[in-house]
Amino acid sequence: MGRIVQKFGGTSVGSVERIQNAARRVIKEVENGNEVVVVVSAMGKTTDELVRLAGEISANPSKREMDMLLTTGEQITIALLTMALHQQGYKAQSLTGWQAGIQTENAFSNARILDIDSTRIEDLLKSGHIAVVAGFQGVITETNDIATLGRGGSDTTAVALAAALKADRCDIYTDVTGVFTTDPRVVKTARKIPSISYDEMLEMANLGAGVLHPRAVEFAKNYQISLEVRSSMSDERGTLVEEESSMEQNLMVRGLAFEGNITKITVSNMPNNINALSDLFTILASNGINVDIIIQNVMNEEKTNISFSIETSHLSETQEVLAGFQDKLGFESISYESGLAKVSIVGSGMISNHGVAAKMFKALSDQNILIKMVSTSEIKVSTVVKQEDMVKSIETLHDIFELDARVPVQNS
Ligand code: ADP
Ligand code: ASP
Ligand code: MG
Q1: Each residue of 169-198: b (16+ CB within 10 Å) or e?
Q2: Packing angle of the helix pair 276-286, 315-324 (nearest 10 deg)
Q3: In terms of C-beta density within 10 A (0-12 exposed, 13-18 middle, 19 or more buried), how is residue 279 classed?
Q4: 401 CA distance to ligand 3 centroid (A)?
Q5: Ligand 3 centre distance from Cα of residue 42 (Å)
């Protein structure tokens, strides 16, 4: 007998018919002799709708109340899916994150899972039940308050449960047939990737490929969970996320990821002393501002300019913090440029191939696309471009790295 965690995303439980379709997939695994734990998201766009509703009441709602509100979405789905399973004659019970023993750190809106007490789920499985767990939520250990895991966090619930329950497999059912070379809704020629390594998937997810929540990939890597991303609407095999895959090892570029709404901030004429960088970024970090790419331009022995990118939604906060510390940091002025996007190429083969970045920059400049910032790691190169150039950049890079042309490799 195997043990499987199945996760159904918003679209896959977006209507009564789709909930029944999800129930059929659960039943199929039960009939194959498996113990099944199901994790579900809120139906369709419910979470967005709840965010919108809150916005009508308050421009700056309390994070605690926001989490209280958003977790209701998943609670609807667990009850309905469980009823659908009962209707088909199966024993099932729905559980909120708290009931499922999911304990989080003391932070609202983007809490990390600290621990899972899986006793209740184990008992349910032992007594022949299907456990249906609300994704995206947990309970803060110290306060018993409900916290959410960040948008897209149901993936993380599923993989964390798979780790805690020592499941044989975790299947992520979504509205595309797998992980593609880039978002198939943006690039029509994007191709499904049969298998991708944890590290590449982690980069893709961190760099904006919304198909998997980054922390889900982290859990999968740390606990060696065998993960498959696949469609809830077809029986086509999906994408396996696993240790470095043998079939497609060392591809220079495996995929492209992108995200918009980025702002570049430049702090000009800071005293060029030994603490300049550490002072600036310590202040930003201690004020909860997430900085991405950083560029330092030393002007002369005395002065330096420092640029960094942030999410545009944090712009006013960042400006306020910097203004508050202008005297301490001693810079002359701050300027910023919004309307930017980050476009990244990812592939483990970059480690051993020279010239990948050069090829990327040349392809973009041939299209008259100005690169504003760059950052690299062993397996990715990110560029910041104007948001209006984002789609053209992705299409150009998809083409130049021949991502649509590769012969598909069949899963066994
Ligand atoms: P779910 O509600 O099932 O979790 P999401 O909307 O969170 O679904 O994730 C699936 C979406 O991710 C797809 O519809 C697609 O638009 C987007 N996406 C972004 N990058 C990729 C990629 N590289 N491969 C597949 N889908 C991607
Ligand atoms: N419902 C949550 C969201 O829309 C969590 C998830 O779908 O993973 O972000
Ligand atoms: Mg998702």
Answers
A1: bbbbbbebbbbbbbbbeebeebbbbbbbbb
A2: 130
A3: middle
A4: 27
A5: 10
pLDDT of residue 72: 98
DSSP-assigned beta bridge partners for residue 271 = 303
Report which protein residue has its CA nearest ligand 1's atom 4: 9
CB 138 near ligand 1, within 6 Å? no
Which CATH number applies to 247-412?
3.30.2130.10
233 Cα: distance to centroid of ligand 1 (angstroms): 14
Model confidence pLDDT, tens digit, residues 135-152: 999 999 999 999 999 999
Q: What is the DSSP string of 345-386?
A: EE-GGGGG-TTHHHHHHHHHHHTTPPP-EEEEETTEEEEEEE
Q: What is the pTM of this model?
A: 0.94
On whether the CB atoms of residues 40 and 10 are closer than 8 A, the answer is no
Question: CB within 6 Å of ligand 2 — which residues?
Answer: 9-10, 41-42, 47, 73, 135-136, 151-154
E strands in 43-193: 92-95, 102-104, 113-116, 130-134, 137-140, 146-148, 169-174
Name the residue with the closest Cα to ligand 1, atom 9.
Answer: 211
Q: Which of 7, 38, 41 to mutate to test the pocket of ligand 2 (most atoms within 8 A of CB)?
A: 41
Residue 316 Cα to ligand 2 middle (Å): 26
Nearest CA to ligand 1 atom 25: 179
Q: Is 412 exposed, middle or buried (0-12, 13-18, 19+ CB in 10 A)?
A: exposed
Mean pLDDT of the chain: 94
Domain coordinates in residue numbering, the chain = 3-175, 247-412
CATH fold for the domain made of 3-175: Carbamate kinase (3.40.1160)
Q: How close is the Cα of 137 to the center of ligand 3, in Å?
A: 14
pLDDT reported for residue 350: 86
Ion ligand 3: residue ranges with CB closer than 5 A: 9, 152
pLDDT tens track for 81-90: 999 999 999 9
Distance CA 219, CA 225 (A): 8
- Cα-flanking dihedrals φ and ψ of residue 313, to 5°? -65, -15
Query: What secondary structure letter does DSSP report for 165?
Result: T
